[in-house]
UniProtKB/TrEMBL annotation, chain A:
This is ABC transporter ATP-binding protein. It comes from the Bacteria. The keyword Repeat does not apply. It comes from Ureibacillus aquaedulcis. PANTHER family: ABC TRANSPORTER ATP-BINDING PROTEIN ALBC-RELATED.
UniProtKB/TrEMBL annotation, chain B:
It comes from the Bacteria. Keywords: Membrane, Transmembrane, Transmembrane helix. This is ABC transporter permease. The chain crosses the membrane at residues 20-37, 187-205, 225-252, 281-304, 311-329, 367-388. It comes from Ureibacillus aquaedulcis. Signal peptide: none annotated.
């Protein structure tokens, strides 16, 4: 278990993280979502003690915190961060990298072969990483963290450069690790993927971590259906607002227009459908607001 | 720690710069063994023609000399000293003709002892050492000759009294072990120390190129630095591998030599030479070089975590090694306590052989003081490194 207590990070008078307090538990995949430069990596760096917060502390398993250098070593046996693919040693093979990480964390050596197999790396793992494509390097970095087998795993943009098949393979591995009592924190922009596998997703904004569920509640859309119009315009929004002033209508940054359907508002869906048809908008869908739309709305 | 050691060792051995250093040393060793060593031209060599020419000239002089009341004093002096001198030369010639190397060593030791006594004590400005000591600008030619004759006397005495296999190559110090001894007396220690600096300069700072891969390793910074220092030390000693190629080439050409061969060691206090075996001489050199390596490595580790610049590592390391060239003048040790400067011990072979005592007119520039100064400086560097690396706010990679 890992607990962040009142973490505050300030760069040149600007609050990157503000009084962040949160607990992460075993068997959890946590998603961190935010535009670049909003504090995701900073948070991970604080957890790793690469960056000392201006205030607050990180507590591991209710006892360990970064008070001494020897504690740091103990904590780093519990928590690891996925390396960046640009930091790989080009003159070493993928397998050598895996062996390094396995031996550094003294994990079960059998994990090396099983991870290679699970991630489909057999064909290139013995070649020097200098010959790898971005996706291969990314998979190797992920595999390195998997073989380290730490209790807490931090992954920054783990899905970068991966095709959908690889994303799925890695996601399945994450689910397996979660079942092994691991806590996995992922910073990612693949919202649909996160939505599928993460137990909790946080948006980072203004130095705060906001749980997506809470954002839904705050927006009043939690549990309500919305009409999602992919190619919305300001003109259409205005027209619809005039026609149905009781409806909550939002035009997002990604040009998606959301029309909130009030509970018990029977008949509204048909009226809005007809209105959209009249205005030549045949493509729309009805359902819960997607994470992607929420993201656009939240960071608009 | 073992895993980290293995990881660092792989890094070290795959490092292109390190490979280049080993290759250059290999080239240097081969070039020296094939080109320079065969052309070695010692001042003190076994030269039958020279001995015979000197012997015959003096013999002729003594045969034809008539001493009476008008004889010039210097002629009387020559008549007094040449008979014994010539006797030794005669013994040397007979020994060469009979291939009696033991006898040659014995008579040569007596010849050098007698020659030095006559030239240095009785014949100043009248008698001279081998003319090759009197080079242009050498103000200390007589002292150099004096040292060389004492050294040769001691060396041949050791050959005469010892039980090593003797040969002309042994007499002219051409065997592999003796070549190594001569190189340790010259620039080999500097080459080894500069190699150590080059190996160590980037051993910490190279991690800046792969920060995310390394930063999170569950090993303390102090232990990391110790492991890196250990690797640099091993790497520095591995320079023996390429250099040994040259050693074996010389061994094939001129023989291996003998670890029991005597090596004369000068004592300024006794103003005389004592003898140690070649094995002991090499061991003492290795010991002082080991302490030099440890000092340089601990210094560069400290600079790596404070200044964090490879150029600073190189510059400061080289300053320590080459500082002696800046302040050294012959006899300085008599007036200044240069024995407390680590850089005064950079000529490792000369320290062990006592030559530095002779040059500096000081009994202080010896192995014991060298080890003391090196270990004290190393301890200070390591202590500061330990304190800095264990500070809570210290970041290994910024």
């Amino acid at each position: 278990m890992m607990e962040l207590k009142n973490i505050g990070v300030n760069f040149s008078g600007r609050d990157i993280l503000k009084e962040v307090s949160i607990t992460f538990h075993p068997r959890e995949i946590i998603g961190l979502v935010a535009p670049n430069g909003t504090g995701k990596s900073t948070l991970m760096n604080v957890i790793m003690n690469y960056l000392r917060p201006n205030s607050g502390k990180v507590l591991f398993n209710n006892e360990l915190e970064y008070t001494t250098k020897s504690n740091e070593v103990k904590i780093h046996k519990l928590v690891s961060m996925m390396p960046d693919q640009s930091d790989l040693y080009n003159h070493l093979s993928g397998k050598q990298h895996l062996k390094i990480y396995s031996s550094m964390w003294d994990s079960n050596p059998e994990l090396i072969e099983s991870t290679i197999k699970a991630l489909g790396m057999e064909s290139y793992v013995n070649k020097k990483t200098g010959t790898y494509s971005l996706g291969m390097r990314q998979r190797l970095c992920f595999a390195m963290q998997i073989v380290s087998d730490t209790q807490i795993m931090l992954m920054d943009e783990v899905m970068n450069g991966l095709d959908p098949t690889q994303v799925e393979i890695i996601s399945q591995t994450l689910v397996k690790k979660k079942a092994e009592e691991k806590t996995i924190i992922i910073a990612s922009h693949l919202l649909e993927n996160l939505e599928k596998y993460a137990n909790r997703i946080f948006f980072v904004k203004n130095g705060k971590l906001d749980l997506v569920e809470d954002i839904y509640k705050d927006l009043g859309v939690n549990g309500n259906a919305v009409i999602r119009i992919p190619e919305g315009t300001a003109e259409l929004k205005d027209k619809l607002s005039v026609a149905y002033p009781e409806l909550n209508i939002q035009l997002l940054a990604n040009s998606v227009m959301l029309v909130e359907l009030p509970k018990g508002g029977s008949g509204i869906l048909e009226k809005v459908s007809a209105f959209l048809s009249e205005n030549h908008k045949q493509a729309f869908s009805v359902g819960k607001m997607s994470l992607s739309d929420l993201y656009s709305k939240y960071y608009h | 720690m073992r895993a980290y050691f293995k990881f660092e060792f792989i890094q070290f051995m795959f490092n292109k710069k390190n490979i280049a250093i080993y290759v250059i040393l290999l080239f240097f060793a081969c070039f020296y063994a094939l080109k320079m060593a065969p052309s070695y031209d010692p001042i003190e060599q076994v030269d039958r023609e020279e001995i015979e020419a000197r012997f015959l000239t003096r013999e002729d002089f003594l045969t034809n000399l008539v001493i009476d009341e008008n004889t010039y004093p210097l002629t009387r002096f020559a008549a007094a000293i040449y008979p014994e001198w010539n006797e030794y030369d005669k013994q040397r010639l007979d020994a060469i003709d009979n291939n009696d190397l033991k006898k040659y060593a014995e008579s040569t030791y007596k010849w050098y002892e007698y020659s030095d006594f006559m030239i240095f004590r009785n014949g100043r400005d009248l008698l001279y050492y081998n003319p090759r000591y009197y080079t242009a600008g050498n103000l200390y030619a007589t002292e150099d000759g004096h040292y060389a004759y004492m050294y040769s006397a001691s060396r041949f005495k050791g050959y005469a009294e010892g039980n090593s296999d003797l040969s002309m190559d042994v007499f002219e110090e051409r065997t592999a072990l003796q070549t190594l001894q001569r190189l340790l007396h010259g620039y080999l220690p500097l080459i080894l120390l500069v190699s150590c600096i080059l190996f160590t300069a980037d051993i910490v700072l190279k991690d800046k190129r792969n920060p995310t891969l390394i930063k999170g390793f569950p090993i303390s910074i102090w232990k990391r630095l110790l492991v890196k220092g250990g690797i640099a030390l091993i790497g520095s000693f591995l320079t023996v591998v390429p250099l040994s190629v040259g050693f074996f080439i010389i061994a094939i050409q001129n023989g291996f030599g003998d670890l029991k061969l005597p090596v004369p060691i000068f004592s300024y206090e006794a103003r005389a030479f004592t003898m140690i075996s070649m094995g002991e001489y090499l061991f003492q050199n290795t010991l002082l070089i080991l302490f030099w390596f440890m000092l340089l490595i601990s210094l560069l580790l400290l600079i790596s975590i404070t200044i964090r610049n490879e150029f600073a590592n190189l510059a400061l390391g080289l300053v320590v090694v080459f500082a002696e060239f800046y302040y050294y003048v012959r006899g300085l040790g008599f007036v200044k306590d240069i024995q407390w400067y680590p850089s005064s011990y950079v000529q490792v072979g000369q320290i062990i052989a006592g030559y530095r005592e002779y040059l500096n007119n000081s009994i202080e520039l010896n192995l014991t003081n060298g080890l003391l100064v090196m270990s004290a400086c190393t301890a200070v560097c390591l202590l500061i490194t330990f304190l800095i690396s264990n500070r809570r706010g210290f970041k290994y990679l910024r």
